TrEMBL record:
InterPro entries: FAD-dep_OxRdtase_2_FAD-bd, FAD/NAD-bd_sf, KsdD_DH, Succ_DH/fumarate_Rdtase_cat_sf
Top-level taxon of the source organism: Bacteria
Lineage: Bacteria, Bacillati, Actinomycetota, Actinomycetes, Micrococcales
Protein name per Swiss-Prot or TrEMBL: Fumarate reductase/succinate dehydrogenase flavoprotein domain protein
NCBIfam families: PRK12834.1
Entry's Gene Ontology molecular function annotations: steroid dehydrogenase activity, acting on the CH-CH group of donors
Length: 552
């Protein structure tokens, strides 16, 4: 059969751009489709903090961090908790490949294309369990200089150069609704051309259909992301044994991240595995200046804030801020609540609060050294200060009793008892003033300051919350923030989509979040952070190269 194109890539996010770049480098004829307009080129990655999981990097070594591929893989496997029944065969294989990539080619490959990193490596998902359990043993979260747009830059540049040279066909506002098959092989796509309403990046766009379209190709690559904006689907696939996701949730992804690409591939015969594995965050706050529907931002907390449930009780050990996101989420959903609380003071806000996302970190995104230097000064960085002033979910008070009244007023309930809140704070403060302490959060916070980056810019010096010199007190209401799909289309190590019987579905490939970042679930049940963008890079590169080779 003669095809008009070698490959149709569906989705112009990071994974789709990387796969396209690899195919173009091999001289293949590619058409890249996306349901949104050109303003949204790069997809979710544009909005990201740009964090990458790198292993034994020069940045780590300069800070005295001792890391290795063996240690990173042990951490990954302890977090993933892969099943022993064979269902995680391909996901585990992709995980092992990714760790080797993170310890090997990832950094030099990006560095050669002009990507650079903030030199102070961050420590995400600290775990807090036994040595073989969840969490990063050492800091591995490398923030890209330029954040998400900085990672996208070389691949957008490659695409635009190829487009100017006539080597790639790019079609925006083309929404794929189905894959076409011939004799059991995927041979193209069909869908709708949508009206071009010229909205800004990630703003909800029109779904008015102008006309249908169809394209044929030797292969189709699905790179459409996950299901995070489709809250009904998120709730329907959330595991029953993990509690109940609330009716009120925030979205950490734009509206178009709805799972439609995964559904189209499944309808064409592709297998979807581990759909119930997801990575949502319990530390979401509503964006005071939203771009997309239910737009939420994640707080990236240091370890000092008290984390309280909706009734004002501390979350169980080791569910401290920044230690186990999924564990905290499951605790909250297991209670049937739609919120929890951080309780802290002005000093902790200034030292420890950061916000995820490119737009919330203008110094890093804009590569501004003068702005960046302000992070070492007392007080909160600009975007955090703005939230503290404009968000209704940031509540200030001079006393625990007053704080409890404001917390109850916000939620329209009386679940926070002022006397109990004061006792909780006093008990914590006694542990701090002891100079040692048995409270595991107090101990973990003191230990965090042994790491130079945490001591300088990330973890406040231990002090009493009720010390007026550090006040006033602050409570922040936290909501569930939908984000990543850990399961997805089942793929082999070349990125070929498998059928439910485990055999290859000819002509269909998948990358990025649509494939569970490789194999239908490279993370297993939990992620170590910095692995989502990395997973898009790894699956896009690996699959693009394998597909280019397969086309001959």
């Amino acid at each position: 059969m003669t095809h008009s194109h070698d490959v149709v890539v569906v989705g112009a996010g990071l994974a789709g751009l990387v796969a396209t770049a690899e195919l173009l480098a091999a001289g293949r004829r590619v058409v890249l489709l996306d349901a949104e307009n050109a303003a949204s080129l790069g997809g979710q990655a544009f909005w990201s903090f740009g964090g990458l999981f790198l292993v034994d990097s020069p940045e780590q070594r300069r800070l005295g961090i001792k890391d290795s591929a063996e240690l990173a893989l042990a951490d990954w496997l302890g977090s993933a908790d892969f099943a022993d029944d064979g269902s995680d065969r391909w996901g585990r294989a992709w995980a092992e490949g990714f760790v080797d990539f993170a310890a090997g080619d990832l950094r030099p490959w990006l560095h050669a294309q002009g990507v650079r990193w903030f030199p102070l490596v961050q420590w995400a998902e600290r775990g807090g369990y036994t040595a073989g359990g969840h969490g990063n043993t050492v800091p591995r979260f490398h923030v890209t200089w330029g954040t998400g747009p900085g990672i996208l830059e070389p691949f957008v540049r490659t695409l635009l150069d190829a487009y100017r040279d006539g080597r790639v066909d790019v079609r925006f506002r083309h929404r794929v609704t189905a894959l076409t098959t011939t004799d059991g092989r995927v041979t193209g796509v069909r869908g709708d051309v949508l009206a071009d309403d010229r909205v800004d990046r990630a703003v909800p766009s029109s779904r008015k259909v102008v006309r249908p379209f169809a394209l044929d190709a030797a292969a189709v690559v699905v790179a459409t992301g996950g299901i995070g904006a489709n809250h009904d689907l998120v709730r329907a696939t959330w595991p029953a044994d993990a509690g109940h996701l609330p009716d009120r949730m925030l979205s950490g992804v734009p509206d178009h991240v709805d799972g439609s690409g995964i559904a189209a591939a499944r309808d064409a015969g592709g297998a979807v595995v581990h759909a119930g594995r997801m990575w949502h965050y319990p530390e979401g706050i509503a964006n005071h200046s939203p771009v997309w529907s239910r737009h939420g931002i994640r707080i990236l907390p240091g370890p000092s804030s008290l984390w309280l449930d909706a009734d004002g009780h501390r979350l169980p050990v080791p569910l401290f801020p920044g230690f186990d996101s999924l564990g905290a989420l499951r605790h909250i959903t297991g209670r049937g609540d739609d919120h929890s609380w951080f309780v802290l003071d002005k000093t902790i806000l200034g030292a420890e609060f950061a916000l995820s996302g490119s737009e919330q970190n203008p110094d890093l995104t804009g590569r501004s050294v003068p702005q960046l230097l302000q992070r070492v000064l007392p007080g909160a960085v600009g975007p955090v200060e703005t939230f503290a002033q404009e968000s209704e979910e940031f509540l200030w008070a001079d006393t625990p009793a007053e704080l409890a009244r404001r917390m109850n007023a916000l939620t329209g309930s009386d679940r926070i008892d002022g006397d109990r809140l004061e006792r909780t704070i006093v008990e914590r403060d006694r542990q701090v003033t002891s100079g040692l302490g048995k409270d595991l959060q107090v101990v973990a916070t003191a230990m965090a300051r042994r790491y130079v980056v945490d001591k300088v810019i990330r973890v406040a010096k231990p002090h009493r919350l009720l010390d007026p010199a550090h006040g006033p007190l602050l409570a922040v209401r936290l909501s569930v923030l939908t984000r990543k799909t850990l399961g997805g289309l089942h793929t082999d190590l070349e990125g070929r989509v498998l059928r439910p019987d485990g055999e290859v579905l000819p002509g269909l490939w998948a990358v990025g979040e649509a494939s569970g970042f490789g194999g239908g679930g490279a993370h297993g049940h939990r992620a170590l952070e910095g692995t989502f963008l990395g997973g898009c890079l790894f699956t896009g590169r690996t699959t693009g190269r394998a597909l280019a080779s397969a086309l001959g």
